[in-house]
Structures are given as C-alpha cells and as structure tokens.
Amino acid sequence: MNYETLQCDRRDRIAFITINRPDKLNALNALAKSELKQLFLDIQHDAEVDVVIVTGSGEKAFVAGTDIKELKELDEQQGRIFSERGQEVFNLIENLGKPVIAAVNGYALGGGAELALACHIRIASDNAKFGQPEVNLGIIPGYGGTQRLARLVGKGRALELILTGEQIDAQEALRIGLVNKVVTLPELMISAESMARKVIGKGQVAVRLALMAVNATQEVSLASGQAFEAELFGRCCASEDFKEGITAFIEKRKPVFKNK
Ligand code: COA
Description:
Layout: E1 6-11, E2 14-19, H1 30-44, E3 51-56, E4 61-63, H2 76-94, E5 100-104, E6 107-109, H3 111-118, E7 121-125, E8 129-131, H4 145-153, H5 155-164, E9 168-169, H6 170-175, E10 181-183, H7 188-200, H8 204-219, H9 222-237, H10 240-250
Parallel strand pairs: 2-3, 3-5, 4-6, 5-7, 6-8, 7-10
Antiparallel strand pairs: 1-2, 8-9
Helix pairs in contact: 1-2, 3-4, 4-5
Coenzyme A (COA) binds next to strand 6.
C-alpha cells in the first residue's frame, strides 16, 4: 500500500517506517496520524515482521510535533477528541505486541517526543533535540506525554520539561534516561538495526510476553501495585531462604541459600 506521508520498507523481519514530510519537519498532520494507524495495524498482523524501526525523513527532524496549523480552530470538545485520536495511535504502537524502536534523527518535539515515548526503545543521533513545547502554545502534551514522560524519567524531570517547554539535547536525554543510546547520525540506522537484530535472535514468544509484562507495570495504580508487592513480600516470608537470611544476619555469618 502507498502512503502519502510515510514510507515503509520491510526486509529480513524488520519494518522500517519513515515519517515523510521533510519540508514540514515531519510534523504529524491528520493524514499522517491516520496513515500511521493503518500502517501499524497492518504490521501488527504481518507474520513476516518481528521488529519495527521508526525514524523521520531528512537529517533535521524526527517529528517536530503535531501539525500546529491544524490546532487553530479546536474548541473544547474538538480538543478532547483530537487528543484521544492521537492517544489511540500511540497506544496502538505501545501495545503493538512487537518491539518498536525509535531512531530519533533530529527534533523530537511535542507529538514527536510523544511518538518516541510510545516506542519501546529510543536511540538518538547526537543532533537530536527533545522537548515538550506545548505550553508555548497554551496547551499541554495531549498524545500521552504527560503520562509516559513522567513514568520514564520521573515526575520532577518530566515536570521541568513540560512546564518550561525547553529543549534538551541528546546527551542530556541520555543522562535522564529518556533515550537508551546516542550515536552519530550516520550510525543511527545501523545501530537501530543492530538492536533489532539482537531482539530478532531471541525467542519471539518470550519477547512478546516480556513486552506485555513490562507494559502491564505501567497500567496498575499505586494501590494495586502495592497490593501485589505485599502479596509477593508475604510469599518471600514463607520461604526457607527468608529464614536462612534472617538467621545468618543474627548469627553474623554469610547466608547459605537453597533457592527454596
Ligand atoms: N507544525 C506545523 N509546521 C511545522 C511544525 C509543526 N509542529 N514544525 C515545523 N513546521 C514547519 C514550519 O512551519 C516550516 O514550514 P514553512 O517552510 O512552510 O514555513 C517548516 O516546518 C520548517 O520549519 P522552520 O521553523 O522554518 O525551521 P527552523 O529550523 O527555523 O526551526 C523548529 C525548527 C523545530 C525549532 C521550529 O520549526 C519549531 O519550533 N517548530 C514547532 C515545534 C513545536 O512547537 N512542536 C510542538 C507542537 S504541539
């Protein structure tokens, strides 16, 4: 299938998606969002694809945000729907059931940062810039950014980015855990593909279940997370290892665990 705003090549079990509006720094207009949804649904059901790599066209931008020109006429109700539609596309990516790697090749701002956040692994080129500049426009991140950014880098750092609207460079993004790795621009796709190949080399049942398990940790409330924690803590207390650990501490010796 041909897309107007995207390119997709599938080879050796990897789907390479390029957001392709370079003259608009790959800003996501309505068409790009609907094409992304269609393409990811197609890839989800493609048995020949194990891993997806997403990048932006050109050397300047991954995605410079949602298309600001399409925001102008939104009223309250339309704004809510606009946000929900974007969330739906990015939720599809996060819950695709196959690993998605963002190869961030320049500006990842607003919806572009949120797209990278919805991916499972982020590799940035050293010219990449990240930011949530929505406050400059009188709005907030609306494609899951307020939720995913805080979960990934912590509430304090997320609030700093969201409240100031400032951009950070790739090294700072690496330092705060927003990206997994920084490489030069010419190395970016090589590095992303090499990461994809490592995953493809593993049992895909385990890869998909691991994705599901880690995604599930993002879903539970603090209360149910703590209930689960307490249950597991109790299970530890019923183990022989627990008794040995405590006894060894009191007797000032090293514990000898039996893994039971
Ligand atoms: N929506 C729509 N168009 C965008 C865009 C966006 N988010 N980001 C960039 N563009 C367009 C520009 O309007 C310009 O188009 P034009 O040539 O038709 O005027 C083109 O992309 C190139 O951008 P330009 O601003 O000239 O490039 P620059 O190198 O001077 O600046 C940025 C780069 C990324 C700093 C700047 O484009 C910018 O601030 N973009 C908006 C980022 C943003 O706020 N994103 C969050 C949106 S919620």
